[in-house]
What does this fold into?
Amino acid sequence: MKPSRFMTLSRHIVEGEKKHPGATGELSALLADFALAVKIIALEVNKAGLVDILGFEGSNNVHGEKVKKLDMYAHDILIRAMDHGGHLAVMASEEEEDIIHIPKKHRIGKYVLLFDPLDGSSNIDANVSIGTIFSIYRRVSPDGLPGTEEDCLQEGYKQVAAGYVVYGSSTMLVYTAGNGVYGFTLDPSVGEFLLSHDDIKIPQRGKIYSLNEGNYKYWHNGLKKYIKYLQDADDRTGNPYTARYIGSMVADIHRNLLYGGIFIYPADKRNPKGKLRLMYECNPMAFIVEAAGGRASDGKQRTLEIKPESIHERSPIYIGSEGDVLEVEKFLREEEMAEAEEKKK
It folds into this structure.
């Protein structure tokens, strides 16, 4: 996608706020702080193979997973960049068990920031694309007071902005404030994110499916039938689809956002609630994909309408081109009905 004009990220955000009467500029400033943190993280990611920041940090995060050194570096940089700007009431990170309060010496703002500092970190040592995911809400607790967990536990449709960063052959930031999805590529020579993908629209249908097929035997029957359907050659439907799975949610969804297709991380017999985090991964990605004309659900319910019960809640997700997501939902629904009928016999 070629941009229509020379545009920096900061200028784009400011011009977007001008379209909304009553905008204070706080969201623009918040996103500018976030972009600065991302630039610093990108510098470390790009030289990760050259300095001693690879390998395990030596501890486990709240989910029992081993923490990579670069994970914690990104986590710390984001907190240090965002906790003193006066725009945030509270933060939450995938790497932190509890919510992250703003230090008392700083002004308490009206926004809430949730983030996954380094998605796909198991790929770090293999030099595969990884990313950062973020989500912004307005606080629901009284202004001026420290933020609460309630501020973080909001349905995804209440997001005011969301985005992700891909650290790959280039560093790219994709964001939406609910009206359109825009991609900016970092020009390292000038240190600016420049508009490279203007008003991204995901195709109605794609030719790519992305999921870990190594878990096939644990899937529910409806998903097994859907994947078999995609793999069967059929001139009428355009099948077979192409399987593409990187293992970094950011990278897989970014590709499908541009080319069309579906990304799936389902519930299965071992993980009945799925594995991806609703607040840090599913909700922000769903907000972006829906703003681009796509669809996201847990197989039964729109992802953005799920009422969260904990900040580290997990959820299945089916996300991507609207036609593809509707189709897998149909397979899941029909199989569930068939199994219910079988039990009645």
Q: What stands out?
A: The longest strand covers residues 111-119. The chain is about 30% helix and 25% strand. The two ends are 55 Å apart (CA to CA).
